[in-house]
């Protein structure tokens, strides 16, 4: 009579490589889900009226263009929050900007009432800490030199 060991199952033969592979697959799925969630959130912020208005103003400002160069691109990590309900809302955003000559960020504080956004703060903050007020029509349309807009402005209440 021969004594033969019972045949091992597929799991008994392959668990040493299957378990780490399954763990890596779960980790990859989790990372992909997080990336998708962040992309969705940043996409929603990027399509909001305060974000679009701020980027439009920054690109149109001769002072910002003089400081950063052209083209001015937005960075990936927009910070802040946006809360809207019907025709009411508030936004507090910090959008990174990059140009060939440097980096900056646009700071937006706005409230929405009756469907209209009002901007309390709309500044480009340069790397050296100076601010350019973007609430004015077009940076320096009045003929003022760009240096006028690069000086540090006092904090608003």
TrEMBL record:
Residues 135-157 are annotated as: Disordered. It comes from the Bacteria. This is Cytochrome oxidase complex assembly protein 1. It comes from Marilutibacter spongiae.
């Amino acid at each position: 009579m021969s004594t033969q060991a019972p045949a091992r199952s597929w799991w008994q033969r392959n668990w040493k490589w299957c378990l780490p592979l399954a763990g890596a697959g779960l980790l990859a799925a989790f990372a992909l889900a997080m990336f998708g969630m962040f992309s969705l959130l940043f996409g929603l912020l990027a399509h909001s009226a305060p974000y679009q208005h701020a980027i439009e103003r920054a690109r149109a400002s001769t002072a910002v263009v003089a400081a950063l160069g052209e083209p001015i691109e937005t960075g990936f990590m927009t910070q802040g929050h946006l809360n809207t309900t019907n025709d009411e809302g508030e936004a507090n955003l910090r959008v990174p900007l990059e140009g060939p000559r440097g980096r900056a960020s646009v700071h937006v504080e706005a409230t929405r009432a009756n469907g209209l956004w009002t901007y309390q703060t709309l500044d480009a903050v340069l790397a050296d800490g100076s601010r350019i007020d973007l609430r004015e029509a077009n940076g320096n349309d009045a003929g003022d030199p760009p240096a006028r807009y690069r000086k540090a402005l006092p904090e608003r209440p």
